[in-house]
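Researcher: Next sequence.
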Amino acid sequence: MVLAEENDLANKQELMNWSKGCFYRSDGRKIDEDLGAKVWDFCMEIDAEAQRMHCCLGKQDKTIHTVEDFYVDRLPEFLEKFSMSDRDDATAIFNSFFNYQRLNFGWDIAKVPFESYIKYKDIDGGDAFMPKGARSLISAIASRFRSKERIKVGAEVVTVNWEDGGVKIRCSSGDTYRAKCAVVTVSLGFLKKHHQTFFDPPLSHEKYLAIDRIAFGVVNKIFLEYDPPFWSKDTPLDSVRLAWDNKELVITDPKSQWFKRIFCIDAVRFNSNCLCVWISCHEGLHVETVPDEEISETCTMVLRQFLGDPTIPYPCKVIRSTWGTNKYTLGSYSCMGLRSNANHFNVLAEPIEDSNGQPRVLFAGEATHAAYNGTMHGARESGVREATRLLRQFGMLPSPREQVIALSETQ
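Model: Next structure:
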């Protein structure tokens, strides 16, 4: 039995797909596009440098403890690449890059250890865009099941009991299901809140520490619908990236200044009437509790201010994701926290074995992948990993040792 994970991992892939977009200042001025592209390229170079430094951590400045430390350390050298007249705009774009990285990690980068780059790996092939959303991928996989009547949806699992010989799953409805093994793919946020009552017997202390110390942040999207839109094919609106100066970016009251964590406002592909607002961290969580009217007024204020157009109308409809308060997710995706290390992801991935050494409760999901946590491909690979483990356990695939022996016998 697989306990399905609802996670907004598609966010991270979509974040990396911008091909167009401009930076705007709070006085309504659009930064020169060539300058914007040049500054952003340098930001990406700094990010790539951080990823390369995992090979020589012993040589790094001992004052660099977090991802934010690294970027702040590089800022003076970064600004020297630009003329004095361009440095104010370059700094504002660099501040925008900070909000971008908060989205990328789903967490405050002042609380993400620089060590997080140790485990970072690129994946070949680039990113893919799914026009019908991540649900279409799940539907395609589910359509291949021969016994569709065995797929139970809308069944809220409350406990996973494991013992020698199998597992028993109990639902809030009172229904119980028995199986030889269970693959648990609930979010890390759910585990943080419920692991003590969700598993019987309880999890090991090592697995508890992994759940407790890996960070699990919030990234949300706000969709603004217009009828009619205030832009057109002749004057398209691609990506409005907000470039705050240093003083503007300071947040003294998160509840009233949550909009300062907005990285950009994008046109929505395949929906010409909508804009998408990207926001993260504590401010992104707070947005989930804000009335639609406040979101409408605040986002309209931001658009009018940065685009320099006081006539921009209010949206006719506001829709927002609620990953942080959804009781089945309680966050978006994981990253390394200040109290965690790369091995905690591996510990979380380890199956629970019975007294005979047989795996009974297996774990999958993005937070169980040491290299690709926080991504859809990481979540998928973790599922393939656990499916392979089960196939080998039931003798439907040779073990790695058997494969090596078979290979040596053929040589």
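Model: The longest strand covers residues 271-280. The domain at 152-216+330-409 is CATH 3.50.50.60 (FAD/NAD(P)-binding domain).
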